[in-house]
Amino acid sequence: MPSAPGVATTTPTSTTASIAEELAQKIRDGQLSAGEKLPAQRVLAQRLGVPITTVSRAYARLEQQGLATARVGDGTYVRALSPDAAPPAPGAPPIDLAHNVAIPTDEVEALRQVLAEISLDPACMAELLAYQPEAGAPQHRQAGADWLRRFGTTGDARRVMVTHGAQHGLAGVLRTLAKPGDTLLTESLSYPGLLALARSLRLQVIGLEMDGEGLLPEALDQAAHSFQAKLLFCSPTLHNPTGRTMSLARREALAAVVRRRGLWLVEDVVHAAVLAQPPPAIATLVPEQSFLLASLSKVMAPGLRVGYLEAAPEWLDKVAASIRADCWMVAPLMPEIATRWLHSGEAERLISLQRQHIAERLALAHTCLAGWDYAWSAHHPHLWFPLPEPWHASPFAAALRQSGVLVRTAEQFAAGRSRAPHAVRISLNTATSPTQLEQGLRTLVQVLESSPAADMAP
């Protein structure tokens, strides 16, 4: 790839700011023209003698300033100096407003530092290469137990095990508690990973009525009686996909039903991890009947694959047996990284950065979607967007996809035979930059303001 003429003449002591400023000036001066491809980050980093993360952050600054656009798998290009975002280039990857992936912050640098620390600890490295207890090493369990206190738990490590993310813990719980044909109760709109897992285990899923706070206690009570169900999965804080959060009174009412009907509660607090002070988990009100699932995936990095499961010790032993039969143990390197971040305060710093980035993207979304009705929550990277007539969800998503933007429709969250509303979930965290996010949201508005094509009519 020929490099752009005169790109970055800074010295090996260059900083993110100096690299970004030099490139920005060359773009404004016309030395770098619109559509020109910037050097690959690794190439420029080697040329300047700086870490690749320094160049990555410089390019990210150019995107934030509207001077460059990153194309996934292709590179970074100079943008036209125009107030209006250009439409996606033919053949360019679509703008992803569908998937739910943590916004990159300082995780790469934090990982570099913690791996360097581990490399200087021979005893730790030897331990990481040895077999581990199925529930996780004691120090990893205690770190997870301490972190779970944010949800109102006691911090008792005997009640906590380490998992390869929340999905792994969920699979272990369902395989332990349920058998084919059993009924699983959940919100009418629920986590797609749960729905897929329930299908694979041949469980009958019943979606329950919701209101502005989430799951209705009376709907749960009636369904538990009618279907003789024993399993409930719910997300009471920053519910996926609607973003709803239950009041304390609603949590107490649901806990009363769980207690009275003898239900097993499987509670998902994965998204709630972004909050500095999340509401207490329902599981803390019925601890002997609950399984609390948490993860670092949505607030740091999905590749970390560190989750924590809290439950009564006797049930953890049973879930651990399921994990032993499945993968023998959780590989200890990732929990060691998470434990060191939790102990040093790095985890809280990274979560705080995630909140800041989400707040910035929410502010951008409010500007782009001004005048439209949608639901949102502070610190939550999703918007729940009911569609105006004449749009229905599937035709709208198809039209949007043709315009180069992806979203999730309500049908993808519909539990059991629940009727999905005509709505979409808009994820603000997967777009590669605020500039790309703005382009995607403005494209979404353009499609909303158009009429469905005849061949897309519902």
Task: Give a structural overview.
- The chain has 458 residues and is α/β, with parallel strands linked by helices.
- It folds into 3 domains: 1-83, Winged helix-like DNA-binding domain superfamily/Winged helix DNA-binding domain (Arc Repressor Mutant, subunit A, Orthogonal Bundle); 108-344, Type I PLP-dependent aspartate aminotransferase-like (Major domain) (Aspartate Aminotransferase, domain 2), CATH 3.40.640; 348-456, Aspartate Aminotransferase, domain 1 (Alpha-Beta Complex), CATH 3.90.1150.
- The chain has 15 helices and 16 strands.
- The strands form 5 sheets. A 7-stranded mixed beta sheet has the order 4-12-11-10-9-5-6, sandwiched between helices. Strands 13-16-15 form a 3-stranded antiparallel beta sheet, with helices on one face.
- Helix 9 (217-227) packs parallel to helix 10 and helix 13 packs parallel to helix 15.
- Helix content is 41%, strand content 13%.
- A hairpin with a 3-residue loop joins strand 1 (68-71) and strand 2.
